[in-house]
Amino acid sequence: MMNKVCFGVDIGGTAIKMGVFSLDGELLSKWEFPTRRENKDLYLQDIANEIKQKSTELKIDENDIIGVGVGIPGPVKEDGSVLELANLGGGNFNIEQELSKLTGLKVKAGNDANMAALGELWQGSGKGYRHLVFVTLGTGVGGGIVLNGNMLAGTNGAAGEIGHIYVNEEETDTCGCGKKGCLEQYASATGIVRIAKRLLQESQEESTLRTIENITAKDIFDAAKAGDVIAYATVEQACKYLGIAMAHVGQIIDPQAFVIGGGVSKAGTIITDLVQKYYEMNVMESLKKREFKLAILGNDAGIYGGARLILA
Amino acid sequence: MMNKVCFGVDIGGTAIKMGVFSLDGELLSKWEFPTRRENKDLYLQDIANEIKQKSTELKIDENDIIGVGVGIPGPVKEDGSVLELANLGGGNFNIEQELSKLTGLKVKAGNDANMAALGELWQGSGKGYRHLVFVTLGTGVGGGIVLNGNMLAGTNGAAGEIGHIYVNEEETDTCGCGKKGCLEQYASATGIVRIAKRLLQESQEESTLRTIENITAKDIFDAAKAGDVIAYATVEQACKYLGIAMAHVGQIIDPQAFVIGGGVSKAGTIITDLVQKYYEMNVMESLKKREFKLAILGNDAGIYGGARLILA
Predict the structure, then answer these.
(1) Taken in order B204, B208, B212, B216, is the CA torsion positive or negative?
(2) Mutation target vs A (from B131, B148, B155, B165; most A CBs, 10 A cutoff)
(3) Mean pLDDT of the residues in chain A
(4) What's the rounded Cα separation, in Å, for the pair B130 and B148?
(5) In what order do the strands lie in the sheet containing B107-111?
(6) Which positions ≥6 away from A171 have C-beta within 8 Å?
(7) Between A and B, how many CB-CB pairs are < 8 A?
(8) How far is CA A54 from CA A6, A10, A29, in A?
(9) Within this chain, do residues B138 and B175 fall inside the same structural domain, yes or no?
(10) Best residue in A252, A256, A258, A278 for a mutation probing chain B (most B CBs within 10 Å)
(11) Do B305 and B202 share a structural domain?
């Protein structure tokens, strides 16, 4: 193979996803394997081995590899050092230096949500934008910010931690982070289920949700679309808090567009429409009329972003 | 004069402040004159004339002028165009192009609060930082954000519009921007007086404030420091909302430090201490321990920032 390539790596708590990309953004090959999370030396060595093996398989000359971009679930400082990795165990090492030593390649790293943001900006629904906010709604709520085409890491790699924006003064339950009233308590898959259970308890209203034993976020969106009042109120409450949090983001960084991804976003435009409604209610006039889009790269956003990071 | 210099200009609704700076940040001369706000051609011509006159007076060779950095009270886009100027009248022109034509010099422009942020970063209490948030508490609440040493303008020049971050769901009064519950309704000089009047009405508590006919923000801070319960509750409420808004900023951009300026900030560390308290209550663990400082450049922050902008 004559053309230059780069690798994108997305380290997750369960699996590591990898992709080889042409420099103009074509995904040439992707694959994944379980994360050996016992310690970082194991999974970093696995990544190095996979790069070598895939290069042999695809007949990629080592000199044609521009580098490796890696997303990791935790804060990554600008110098490539990672702090504590709550979802992966361990932490406190320089992933760029260590993986570079193992591969002999240039390595750049960032937080996984920031990588997904970069990926959507490069080849996803954020294509053509320079200032973008990406929100991922899954088990938790993550976020990534791209300004002038570059991801924003912040002082301690914590920029874009949208899930822990404080949105409700009256919350009595405690968030995983120890605070009360974080966005994640409403707009994550578990948060949405929590809202529904509360509303079902507080109200006498009939609801198809009452017949379901283990309610999921998908059940709630399906019922909301079918006209279930409590389910719709649940979705509206989740989107209200997400819209308010996006309004805060808007007032602070004035982005061009918001892209919403993650498993929950599969519910579709019911989310973007409601979030945009509450966003517009809570920003100044000049910040209205921003784009709200659904992510399109799905689970591949992270590897796209990794590749884009090494090209920046 | 042999050394290179640059000009910093701060266009206000009442007066235009100007300064000549050495490239290492020494303020060589500063002066001000009334803003002829009837139309932009008048005040831009005034600025051009002042540059010429001051250059003659200080024997500055035109070739030694690096350029002119200008702050203006309104949104400025990255290309130097200004949108509507609420506090100045007019708008919708490219200030960089027009002033450059009049002076024959390189001109760069930004929002006045962003300029003050840059000024404090360069030669004020933000010296040494790269990621900084500046808040100015005056008649209104303004803000400016510096990331990686550069001011953040955003898509429409509205980045850092901290005064209109939504902080109180229960507010019934309407903010100047048309929304309800904006930070400016609590943390501006007028906002603080508004809180005090509310608390005085709602409570039977004795207060020295009851003896003052036209209460000012300064009266309230003085009384709070002297132990007046209602005055202290007022200050605490203003700082609570400011702390919450700063927590939002923290979660979103992860800055190194917050600098608080503007007339209200003359009340001193009572503000920074309380704001920091509520900030820390509302951010994730890794975002705590940030610096909260009072601005030190006062009304000169804008001209410093203008000069810094042209050097960037």
Answers:
(1) negative
(2) B155
(3) 95
(4) 5
(5) B27-34, B15-22, B5-11, B65-72, B107-111
(6) A180, A181, A185
(7) 120
(8) 12, 16, 9
(9) yes
(10) A252
(11) no
Cβ of A282 under 8 Å from any chain B Cβ?
yes
Q: Determine the structural domain holding residue B282 and report its residue range.
A: 132-296
B205 and B119 assigned to the same domain: no
Neighbours of A207 (CB within 10 A): 21
Rounded to a whole number of angstroms, the distance from the CA of B212 to the nearest CA of chain A is 33
- Which positions in chain A touch B152 (Cβ < 8 Å)? 147, 253-254
Handedness of CA B190, B195, B201, B204 (dihedral sign): negative
Confirm or reject contact between A165 and chain B (CB < 8 A): yes
Cross-chain Cβ contact A251/B162 below 8 Å: yes
Is the same domain home to A79 and A173? no
A159 near B CB under 8 A: yes
One domain for residues A282 and A198: yes
pTM of the model: 0.93
Q: Specify the number of domains making up chain B.
A: 2
B93: domain CATH number? 3.30.420.40
A268 touches A80 (CB < 8 A): no
Q: Which residue ranges of chain A lie beneath pLDDT 70?
A: 1-2
Residue B242 contacts residue B166 (beta carbons within 8 Å): no
How would you write the pLDDT of chain B (312 residues) with one tens digit per residue? 458 999 999 999 899 999 999 999 999 999 999 999 888 999 999 999 999 999 999 999 999 999 999 999 988 998 999 988 877 888 899 999 999 999 999 999 999 999 999 999 999 999 999 999 999 999 899 999 999 999 999 999 999 999 999 999 999 999 988 999 999 999 999 999 999 999 999 999 999 999 999 999 999 999 999 999 999 999 999 999 999 999 999 999 999 999 999 999 999 999 999 999 999 999 999 899 999 999 999 999 999 999 999 998
DSSP secondary structure string for all residues of B76-142: B-TTSEEEE-TTTS-EEEEHHHHHHHHHSS-EEEEEHHHHHHHHHHHHSTTTT-SSEEEEEESSSEE
Which residue among B154, B248, B253 places its CB closest to the CB of A154?
B253
Question: CB contact, 8 Å: A246 with chain B?
Answer: no
CA B136 from chain center: how many Å?
4
* For A151, nearest residue in chain B (alpha carbons): B253
Residues of chain B contacting residue A248, judged by C-beta atoms under 8 Å apart = 165-166, 248, 252
Reported ipTM: the value is: 0.92
State whether A141 and A268 are in the same domain: yes
Q: Within this chain, do residues A142 and A290 fall inside the same structural domain, yes or no?
A: yes
Residue located via tokens 């709602």: B202
Is A128 in the B-facing interface, judged by CB distances under 8 Å? Answer: no
Q: Quick one: which H or E segment has residue A138?
A: none
The CA distance from A73 to A109, in Å, is 11
Instruction: Indicate whether B39 and B145 sit together in one domain.
Output: no
Confidence at residue B2, expressed as pLDDT on a 0 to 100 scale: 58
- Name residue A70's beta-bridge partners: A9, A109
